Amino acid sequence: MTTTPRRAGSLHVLSGRVRIIDGERAVGLGAGQTAPIPQRRHSLEAEEESVVILTSVVNIGD
Questions:
Q1: Mean pLDDT, the chain, integer
Q2: What is the pLDDT of residues 1-31, one digit of tens each?
């Protein structure tokens, strides 16, 4: 039996300001803020010089 991997991700901003853009929706984040990564096509734009941590997990719940 083949199953589709379940995935999750988050973005944590250490410094600066960024935007996660998901279709028509955009979420602005500043230093110290965290947001989930969308499960569909998205992009990340830095509004200023920024440092971020991207966390990705595959097969959660196994």
A1: 90
A2: 566 667 789 999 999 999 999 988 999 999 9
Which tokens go with 37? 């990564």
| Rounded CA separation 57/10 (Å) | 9
To which residue do tokens 């941590």 refer? Answer: 53
Quote the CA–CA distance of 32 and 52 in Å, as a whole number: 10
What confidence score (pLDDT) does residue 25 get?
92
pTM: 0.81
- DSSP for 1-62 reads ---PPPEEEEEEEEESEEEEEETTEEEEEETT-EEEPPSSS-EEEESSS-EEEEEEEESTT-
Contacts of residue 48, defined as CB under 8 A and 6 or more positions apart, other chains included, come to 16, 17
